[in-house]
Hints:
Blueprint lengths: L9 E4 L8 H12 L4 E5 L14 E4 L8 H12 L3 E5 L2 H14 L4 E2 L7 H6 L1 H11 L6 E3 L3 H11 L3 E5 L14 E4 L2 H9 L1 H4 L3 E5 L8 E9 L3 E14 L5 E7 L3 H14 L3 E9 L6 E7 L17 H9 L14 E3 L1 H10 L1 H5 L6 E3 L8 H25 L33 E3 L15 E2 L3
Parallel strand pairs: 1-2, 1-4, 2-3, 3-18, 4-5, 15-16
Antiparallel strand pairs: 6-9, 6-17, 7-8, 7-9, 10-11, 10-13, 11-12, 12-15, 13-14
Helix pairs in contact: 6-7
Amino acid sequence: MSPLDTGVPALLLRLDHHPFHHGSLGAVRSLGRAGVEVHAFVESPRGPLARSRYLHRAHPIPGAADIDVERLLLRAAERIGRPAVLLPMDDAGALALASGLADRLRDVYLLPGTVPGAVERAADKAQLAGLCAELGLPHPVTVVPEGPEEVAAAVRELGLPLIAKWSRPWLLPKGSGLRSATVITSAGQALRLYAARARAGSRLLLQRRLAGGRNADWFFHGCFGRGGVPLYGGTGRKDVSWPLGAGATAVGSWRENPEVAAAAGRLAAHLGHHGILDLDFRREAGSGAYHLLDVNPRPGAQFRLFTDPSGLDVVRALHLDLTGRRVPAGRAVPGRMFVAENYGLLAALTAPARVAALRGRPVEAAWFAADDPAPFAAMAGGWTAQVARKGWERALSLSSSSRSPSPCSPAPVPPVPPSPRDAGPGPRAGARVVPPSTSPNRARESGEPRCTTW
């Protein structure tokens, strides 16, 4: 008998168009295997997620840039026919619910009771810096420049390379060429990014790049009850990323880290967070301090790494909590591995020795599952085609001398003049500098999913 209330369905909300989002597939499988009727918004009835035998019904994501989220969810609720657990799978969805929309949907959906403003404060990368300062959590020195001169001054103060981030990356327009985070290698590159802030829709942050090295990147995935009470979670290490050293988790492992877990608990309690959190940390080489880099108020893509022997994970924990059931005490499985096959293959081709060193451990695959093979096949075909297409497009663009520079292009620019003597060593007045903390830191038997009209 399932520990979950199988009479309550679930709907996965994702507003961005990302057909290869393995976190959504993990949530569909986790809840579907427990007997829950799972609905999800998908890009295409032929995509990997829509092919899962554990998806009860696929609902199309509108193609329009501006989506009326409330109308979208109310129409989905009519199709489902009874209250469902609503689970945002991306930041845009989580922030839409946190902005007051959740209160208007409580008659048709089961939702966490969030504290007004708490989710926005943690997800906004500019506000996160101040939040870390309040809590005494280590965070990289961060500058929010308010003009070109302050950009230049921040580059001098922080040093190169540094990290540029958009404070609200979920607002980045599709096809803009702008990334949520970029490694900056020149002052000119930083200035061009700053000039693109109107298109980005949020403020640009310049952040000191922490010297970390191998095995320095860690993450925490957890589910919290009302008031930030911990229900279930785990800490893990990013063993291999793609791109190498500065990308998504290609291979990760479950490893106990009390310091990271404690920092996550303090943050959740301070915010009174109810729901799921995905946090990223980097261990600074010199001090050994774990710096909090990012807060995502939804399940992380590799959340299935933290699956205990009973099948409990953060998604099941939230369904249990929202349906009034007790969340059992989970049992950690240190050493368990998570592999995202598409990223892992690329990483293995680039750094085979690093990947080979991780063999011989229990593995949770992002895509392949013997009881649900269709999504893997759909991913493999679609991913290969996408990589080939992008490679061809890039080859064509590089052969064209008339291509206009990207805002992130590190093309040579005139040097930035030194600051006047009376400007001081740091950014000028108007820029906001946050100093580092000194703390030590169910399922149909077969067949295609029932889809709405596409």
